[in-house]
Amino acid sequence: MSTGDLLTIEPQELKFPFELRKQISCSLVLLNKSDNYVAFKVKTTNPKKYCVRPNTGVMSPRSTCDVIVTMQAQKEAPPDMQCKDKFLLQGVVASPGATAKDINAEMFNKEAGHHVEEWKLRVVYVAPPRAPSPVREGSEEDSSPRASVSDNGSLSASERTVISTPYVERNEPQDNSFEARALISKLTEEKNSAIQQNKKLQQELELLRHQSSRSRRSGGIPFIYVVLVGLIGIILGYLMKRTSPVTLPANDSV
Predict the structure, then answer these.
(1) Which residue, 30, 86, 126, 166, could crosslink 65 as a Cys pair with Cβ 3.0–4.6 Å?
(2) Can you give the pLDDT at residue 193?
(3) Is it true that the peptide bond before 249 is cis, omega within 30 degrees of 0?
(4) Burial class (CB in 10 A: 0-12, 13-18, 19+), 51
(5) What does the pLDDT look like over 11-25, one tens digit per residue?
(6) Which GO terms describe its cellular component (predicted)?
(7) What is the pTM of this model?
(8) Residue 123 backbone dihedrals phi, psi, to 5 degrees
(9) Nearest C-alpha neighbor of 121 from the set 25, 19, 31, 2
(10) Nearest Cα to 42, choosing from 82, 85, 97?
(11) 137: DSSP letter
(12) CA–CA separation, 198 and 107 (whole Å)
């Protein structure tokens, strides 16, 4: 906490949980502990990097004001996470009933004889808060129920149920094994049936092939042979016509 005759400022450092490419904000609380109206102004060495709201204002006596400082998103981290930026907060007594519109630079001019209080605040980068780690569950030994024996050496009904539960669970694999064997038997039967149907189809196909070959043999002379014989006859007739002797007409005597 930083204090003066006019204002008290909390905290004394601006701590930003630094994260790349993300806007980060922190707040200042100003307390006017005097009976006067106090005007304040916030300055920084890097105005393009930070946004201060409000950066000027007038506080009534015994009042408080929250100032929000927002750092713009940064593309890279500074070396060793050290920041040299600083802020300067100035406070001066204002006339009663003054507002933010009445603030001017002359009010904070020390050379003009005004009593100006100043507070220098530095910027500190801190690591962002980490997400809480998941709670580990207890070990199986700790979480598993255990039966207790009474003084007379007998167990209660609920404890006997807990103890007998593992035996019921052991029967489940046997049921699963029986279902698996039944499924395998069914698949085997379907496979054998498919093989028999395949053999039957092959026999029918072979029978159709034999019938087709018989029909070809008993069909007589194929039509193509008839066509070939006709063509050969036409060609022979044409050749014989060309080779026959030509009869010349007799010349009349004069």
Answers:
(1) 30
(2) 83
(3) no
(4) middle
(5) 999 999 999 999 999
(6) endoplasmic reticulum membrane; plasma membrane
(7) 0.50
(8) -100, 135
(9) 2
(10) 85
(11) P
(12) 107
